[in-house]
Amino acid sequence: MSPRTHIVGAGLIGASIGIGLTAEGWSVTIEDNDDEAQALARSIGAGDALGDAQPELVIVAVPPSAAAAVVAAALGRFPDAVVTDVASVKAPIAAAAHATGASSRYVGSHPMAGREVSGGLGAQGDLFKARPWVLCPNGAAEDAVALVARVPEALQCDVVTMDAEAHDAAVARVSHAPQVAASAVAAALGILDADDVALAGQGLRDVTRIAASLPGMWADIARLNRAHLVETLDHIIADLEEVREADDIGEALTDLIDRGRYETARIPGKHGGATRDWTPVTVIVPDTPGQLLRLLAHTAEVDVNVEDIAIEHSPRQPVGLTTLYVLPSHAPDLVAALERQGWEIAAS
Amino acid sequence: MSPRTHIVGAGLIGASIGIGLTAEGWSVTIEDNDDEAQALARSIGAGDALGDAQPELVIVAVPPSAAAAVVAAALGRFPDAVVTDVASVKAPIAAAAHATGASSRYVGSHPMAGREVSGGLGAQGDLFKARPWVLCPNGAAEDAVALVARVPEALQCDVVTMDAEAHDAAVARVSHAPQVAASAVAAALGILDADDVALAGQGLRDVTRIAASLPGMWADIARLNRAHLVETLDHIIADLEEVREADDIGEALTDLIDRGRYETARIPGKHGGATRDWTPVTVIVPDTPGQLLRLLAHTAEVDVNVEDIAIEHSPRQPVGLTTLYVLPSHAPDLVAALERQGWEIAAS
């Protein structure tokens, strides 16, 4: 029997959770202090109006800056319910819950939806499917943790349990500081004219991809996670200054690249394992519909699984370079098969 | 009639140019002060031994740190030849050529091969095809520039002409500093344990992708382009410190993100135009061979051209998320078609 669940906040995250749990047969109610958002969420199946029955589980899905106060209020307003929230910074909210004296009923959540998602009208039940959903129990009762865990389980997320402070330190390094650094690299393009910027290759496009995202909740996130973010920025600044100040800038950069390489190897690739050493096979692909499909069809004929793809469009030319990342043992067969089919291999 | 061409340096770049020009019917000779490299290059068709006939064009393809001296020597050794080089920093080499008094016969080149390429055995004639090839005339005679330009034309590159100093300032911003910043972001992961690093999403993977590359020639490049690199790092450091020191870190970060967004929009996407506003359609894809092919086949059925693809493997789950970037006007049809075929759309 699924818990009677009440969602406070009918934005993208709250509404998506509501739709997803409703689809799994849960009894869900939802509210928002914005009447229009509340009406929209109810109309798209994200939940009903709260009735007389008290909820067993309350999910606070409000902007990060409001989460601490709304969680504290929810713990008082629903004295028998377990409360969770979905903000992307966890320690300040855990502290607010602790201050109420009811923190045994509070479990922090951080559902890690992808960067491509934004806009309140985009709510959908499987927004979090196959993504990590972090739980921060931080002293909550065991049955409270088990109850909250049923949400990511129902939504088919990858449940990860960790301490709130450790979570905030980690997301500062894997998410918040990378955003700041990517934006700073992009901002440094400001003195270049268009012809100069046109020298950009795939490397710059990769580094600055997240710099194209909307500011959205970043201001809130930076304020709430300031200490960890500043600590991480200090680490990055110190490394940049070490290169900048070095007597031998070449040696200093080699040292930094070596340290960076060591760490990138720890970023998980597939299924929680370390990044595999995939072999890139770069193919020249005419930039017309269907070519990528032809390429992958020829790839499939030799039973090679494509682990990743990078597509680089060529400035001013009607062809692009597509790099297929495959297991090293598959690369020679793939190259031979593609050449047999008439593809030009630019690098492998 | 193609110019008699002599290549000094039989590493990946020199040998690849030799193979490419030979394939176009050019008469090419090649030498290397490493006997083994020289023999290998000659055996794979990168050029013959230099005979009695003096070359009309000399291409210096030695490591960046040696390029200035070898260019100056080549201008003296071949007094009737036009000389170019392929180092990725241009002003110091132009200065060395100028100091010989023979700079009317020197034109700098920077063929911008992709980041995936490395290793001397990987030489191939179309290494540079469809990539930018920068020419820096810097006071060379017009016929010298025209002669050197025949190389990228023969190799089907995208020829870009610019001043050597402007080139170096530009590559510091679009290539060298982004490498340093990506490595610094990666190095900052050092304090995290494996579970924490596992929170990494596609954003971190994008930012740190080039941080996984080998140090290679970066030490040389940083030394030769130190002034421009330091200036760019100072810009980046100042932006990071502005965020770090701000009274309101949220406001400062929003400002930086806004500036970064403005600049990323100037990075060319397809065919020299500004990055298009592609619409992402994210699909849940079982992580087994052939699934990506099926997905693209269903995409092709509705005549939608895929502009870019991002594949995100899900830690610990046998599915991945694949994002197809398409023209906004194509997105609704694509989503409908994929859903009809039974695909789960995670976001669009």
From TrEMBL, chains A, B:
Keywords: Amino-acid biosynthesis, Aromatic amino acid biosynthesis, NAD, Oxidoreductase, Tyrosine biosynthesis. The lineage of its organism: Bacteria, Bacillati, Actinomycetota, Actinomycetes, Micrococcales. Pfam families: PDH_C, PDH_N. The keyword rRNA-binding does not apply. It comes from Demequina litoralis. It catalyses: prephenate + NAD(+) = 3-(4-hydroxyphenyl)pyruvate + CO2 + NADH. This is Prephenate dehydrogenase. Pathway: Amino-acid biosynthesis; L-tyrosine biosynthesis; (4-hydroxyphenyl)pyruvate from prephenate (NAD(+) route): step 1/1. Its EC number is 1.3.1.12. It comes from the Bacteria. Residues 3-287 form the Prephenate/arogenate dehydrogenase domain. Belongs to the prephenate/arogenate dehydrogenase family.
